[in-house]
Amino acid sequence: MAVKKYYQLAKHSLFPICRSLTGDGVRKTLKIIKKEFPKLKICKIRSGTKAFDWNVPPEWNVKDAYILDKNNKKIVDFRNNNLHLVGYSTPINKFFSKKELLKHIHSLPKQPKAIPYITSYYKRYWGFCVNHNEKLKLEKNYKNSDKFKVVIKSNLNSKGYLNYGELILRGKSKQEILISTYACHPSMANNELSGLIVSMCLIKYFKKIKKLNKTLKFIIIPETIGSITYLSKNLSYLKKNVIGGYNLSCIGDERQHSCMFSKYENSPSDKSIIEAYKKLKIRYKRYSFLERGSDERQYNAPGIDLPISSIFRTKYCKFPEYHTSLDNFNVVTIKGVSGGYKVAKTAIEILLKKLIPKNKILCEPQMRRRGLYPTLSSKPVPYDAKHYMDFLQYANGKNDLNDISQILKISTKLAKEIFLKLKKNNLIY
């Protein structure tokens, strides 16, 4: 079973990797996935590259990081848990007093056994993360006069790269369904790896189908800056061809099913999710787009406006282990991932079957030379001609055939006949 296979791959091979927005961890992750799917294309974008209002950050890598007490005992060790180091910490080799050190030690008093996940991507900083019990020990067991040696063997390379993966399953149509997930967090299972597990299962399933109605495009990116960069490089193409898709995040626990619609909550993707839950007889929680926080916010950003929805089990920020060391494979289970996979697969299958017309030309076409409008102006406009014009008004890639038939108050059968006629005349696809 694919779910079990990729669950074990994530647990044993992907979980230990120290990932960030850039660096060897992302490349290692993508290379492991490429072994499973050789057609995965690993792309790279140079650090400093302009991406809309952003710039690709320097590539960050870390070899080691630790804190030594006066007896040369390691009291915090990055190699024990890569969450111990604040993401994008700058290199340092220096002694600090207890007071100075504590300013750079982060913990969660309300979750004393959890190591928090902290980053500082866009401002130079260094720091460590520990569970709160360990921080209390540090405060209690050492004198204010004690000195601590802090060593962070990291590197920020302005000539490095941001990497992402792309895999395309070609269909009969150029219309695309975009499935996006991210690879940029260190050892966290639901927040990071559940989306990768489900994506691999989806690739495994759909690549066996020889005649897909539409093209499926899978991307594995660093969250936020990855999607922004990807959009900046491919926006015109995506706006022309993408008719729907899903961001997969936090999709591996057993607590609940949930989703978030695209910005205007009326896209084919949104409707397909609802149909999927209904078909599978699953109760779910729907979140407002105003509660966005993952890459759905970039796909639906001003001027972007791609019809991309999100599918979760328990949404990010809504489970207690989120962004801590407690987000492990006790949270993510085979049963949980299987449930998330079934929803995503069913939603994609429904979306694949939807007929979603989209205009091929700008403005109102010249219908007379195509034989779709009378050559003599008359009053009133012939009914058939008006149907063609009305159909084109709503063939915007956001309405499926059923939507258009309801808007025009005509049968689905007639709507399909109009669609085929307009397609034959190269006005829609």
Task: Report a brief summary of the structure.
With 429 residues, the protein is of the alpha/beta class.
Q: If you had to describe this structure to a student in words, what would you say it looks like?
A:
It is a single chain. Strand 4 and strand 5 form a beta hairpin. The chain is built from 12 helices and 16 strands. Helix 5 packs across helix 9 and helix 11 packs across helix 12. With 429 residues, it is an alpha/beta fold.
Would you spell out the secondary-structure blueprint of this structure?
Elements lengths: L1 H13 L9 H13 L4 E6 L3 E2 L2 E2 L3 E10 L5 E4 L14 E6 H5 L2 E2 L21 E2 L2 H10 L5 E11 L3 E9 L6 E7 L6 H18 L8 E7 L3 H17 E7 L9 E3 L7 H13 L4 E3 L8 H4 L8 E5 L21 H20 L29 H12 L6 H8 L3 H13 L5
Parallel strand pairs: 7-8, 11-12, 11-13, 13-16, 14-15
Antiparallel strand pairs: 1-10, 2-3, 4-5, 4-9, 6-9, 10-12, 14-16
Helix pairs in contact: 1-5, 5-9, 7-9, 11-12
Highest-level CATH class of the largest domain? Alpha Beta
Shape type? elongated
Kindly provide the radius of gyration, computed on alpha-carbon positions and rounded to a whole number of angstroms: 26 Å
How many structural domains can be distinguished in the coordinates? 3
| Distance separating the two termini | 37 Å
